[in-house]
Specification:
This protein is mainly beta. The protein is about 0% helix and about 60% strand. It contains no helices and eleven strands. Strands 2, 4, 5, 6, 9, 10 and 11 form a seven-stranded mixed beta sheet that branches. It has a four-stranded antiparallel beta sheet with strand order 1-3-8-7, with no helix packed on it. Strand 9 and strand 10 form a beta hairpin. The radius of gyration is 14 Å and the shape is elongated. The N and C termini lie far apart (about 40 Å).
């Protein structure tokens, strides 16, 4: 199995920035795609950004131009840089990774979630 551990959430004023991190650990795995999702109480979890290996990033319209997803393959870590934060960005943020554990067993893992609160 592949475990994901997130960090970096917190309280920030509107207009501020935060960077979320998500590190993957396990044995003999490759990640095909990373993603960040967010969820507010009583709503569905929605995609914020995706980063497939060898593919283009994709962002929700609501965060385009403000959020940036990136990865450090050597550290098996994905980041979400969030700038110009708005109160509507307040949510629990989850990272997701899918790929394969050697030799070819597919996995799809989620982090535990990290709270981001933007005060107006």
């Amino acid at each position: 199995q592949v475990q994901l551990v997130e960090s970096g959430g917190g309280l920030v004023q509107a207009g501020g920035s935060l960077r979320l991190s998500c590190a993957a650990s396990g044995s003999l795995f490759t990640i095909d795609a990373w993603a960040w999702f967010r969820q507010t109480p009583g709503t569905q979890r929605i995609m914020v950004a995706t980063l497939p290996t060898g593919g283009d990033t994709n962002y929700a319209d609501s965060v385009k131009g403000r959020f940036t997803i990136s990865r450090d393959n050597a550290k098996n870590t994905v980041y979400l840089q969030m700038n110009s934060l708005k109160s509507e960005d307040t949510a629990v943020y989850y990272c997701n990774a899918n790929g394969r554990v050697w030799p070819a067993k597919a996995f799809d893992s989620w982090g535990q979630g990290t709270q981001v609160t933007v005060s107006s």
